[in-house]
Amino acid sequence: MNKQSLKEKLIDAAMAAQKKAYVPYSNFRVGAAVLDERGEIHSGCNIENSSYGATNCAERTAIFCAVAAGARQIEMLAVITDEDDYARPCGICRQVMTEFASPDFCLIALKPDRSYVEYTMEEILPCFFGPANLT
Fold first, then answer.
1. Which residues pair with 110 in a beta bridge?
2. CB-hemisphere CA count at 13 Å for 12?
3. What CA–CA distance (Å, rounded) separates 27 from 40?
4. Residue 59 to residue 99: CA distance in whole angstroms
5. 41 with 34: CB under 8 angstroms?
6. CA dist 27 → 8, 20, 73 (Å)
7. Beta-bridge partner residues of 78
8. Residues 45-101: pLDDT tens digits?
């Protein structure tokens, strides 16, 4: 499958995941999907909790699902919200991405109309601290 087809499948998965978001407090629905190094897609939505600190973002849900399924690297991550702007991950999600991002990692930041911009890891978290800093 070519790279553009994979992006389209990833976008579809992120949009489907967004519909499953559990957001009774903020009503801010987020969906995410990651493509792992094996070519498998894993999706996630944000899951809120009445104890706000226990809430989990869609991006981390998708990454953790991928890791739980055996992935160790993510090549692409697509993220979408209902806002009429490109979705961007929070700082905690960006840090988690550094742990699993492949060298050519690509973030696909979506708008609800499916338009998107792409970012590298360095663009979304410049000078990040990652696994390479510990070796």
1. 116
2. 7
3. 29
4. 13
5. yes
6. 26, 12, 31
7. 33, 108
8. 999 999 999 999 999 999 999 999 999 999 999 999 999 999 999 999 999 999 999
Q: What sign does the dihedral 54-60-61-65 (CA atoms) show? A: negative
Contact 98, 121 (CB under 8 A): yes
Active site residues: 59
| Residue 77, H or E segment | strand 74-81
Domain boundaries, given as residue ranges, for the chain: 3-134
Percentages helix, strand, coil for the chain (3-state, rounded to 5) are: 35, 25, 35
Starting at the edge strand found earlier in the chain, the sheet holding 101-110 runs 41-45, 30-36, 74-81, 101-110, 116-119
CATH architecture of the domain 3-134 equals: 3-Layer(aba) Sandwich (3.40)
